[in-house]
Structure formats: structure tokens, C-alpha cells
Amino acid sequence: MKIFWQVILLFLLATSTHASPITPGEIRVVDGDTVRVGPDLYRLVGLNAPETGSHASCEAERALGATATRRLRQLVAGGGLDLERIACACRPGTEGAPRCNYGRLCGVLRVRGRDVAEILVREGLAEPYVCARSRCPKRKDWCAN
pLDDT tens-digit profile of 93-136? Predict the structure, then answer.
């Protein structure tokens, strides 16, 4: 029985994830739902922000995407950050590869304990976006009225 509990404990330790404190200088905001920490690019989960630049489908999307990006930069600059890497909703073996989130890892970014996804969604700068185990819902058309 003792071995059983040791195996359970090792499993929990191996599969649990922990948020890591991070300073504003360690994180670079790429757009409203993507950040870079060192060489790693993270797709923030729980939200879908409008695209920016040439990736946007219309001027309205580009403008809202720029606003979402600026707001995420403000949140990051305020400090009190924790980044938790989580499993992506991709086929096994594809995480971190171009076929899975364009090579991005997945994570939850919190500012003083609050998920930035919830903040940006509440402020109308992103839509809620929750993926199933291996696929994600259709994304909002930011150009449709």
C-alpha cells in the first residue's frame, strides 16, 4: 500500500503545474494574446484577441487588436506577474511545433492573482476562447457587424 501512495504522489508531482513569478522586464507582449519570455512564445489561454498588423482582416480588427495589445502591455508593466505553462489543446506530440498554435506554448498569465484573459474579455478587448482537449472553437469574425 505504501508503494501505491508513493506512485500517486510522484504522478501528482510530475503532472502538476505551478505558476512562476516573472518580472515585467522578462516578458515581451507580442499582441493581445501572445507573450514572449526569453526564447519561448506563449499563447495565452482563455481568450482570443483581435489580430494586429497585416494579420488583421479589416481596419476595425487592426485597431481593436492594437488596443488589446496596449492594454496587455499596461497590465504587464504594473508587475505582480505569474506565468503558468499549461498543456495546449493540440494533438499529442505537436505542442511547440508549427502545427500546434503556430509553435507557441500555452500559458495562463496572472496579474496580482487575476487572469489577464478575464480582464481583457471583461473590458471588451478579447472574446472568451476555451478549447477542448484537442481542438478549439471557431474564432470570432471581428470584422462582422
Answer: 776 666 677 778 999 999 999 999 999 999 999 999 888 777 78
What DSSP state is assigned to residue 138?
P
CA of 112: how far to CAs of 19, 26, 109, 126, in Å? Answer: 12, 16, 10, 20
Scan for cell 496572472, then name that residue: 110
CATH class of 18-129: mainly beta
Q: Are 74 and 68 in contact (CB under 8 A)?
A: no
Half-sphere exposure of 141 (CA within 13 A, CB side): 3
Q: Is the four-CA dihedral 129, 97, 90, 27 of positive or negative sign?
A: negative
Per-domain residue ranges for the chain?
18-129
Biggest CA–CA distance in the chain, Å, is 63
Model-level pTM? Answer: 0.81
Determine how β-strand 114-115 pairs with β-strand 46-48.
unpaired
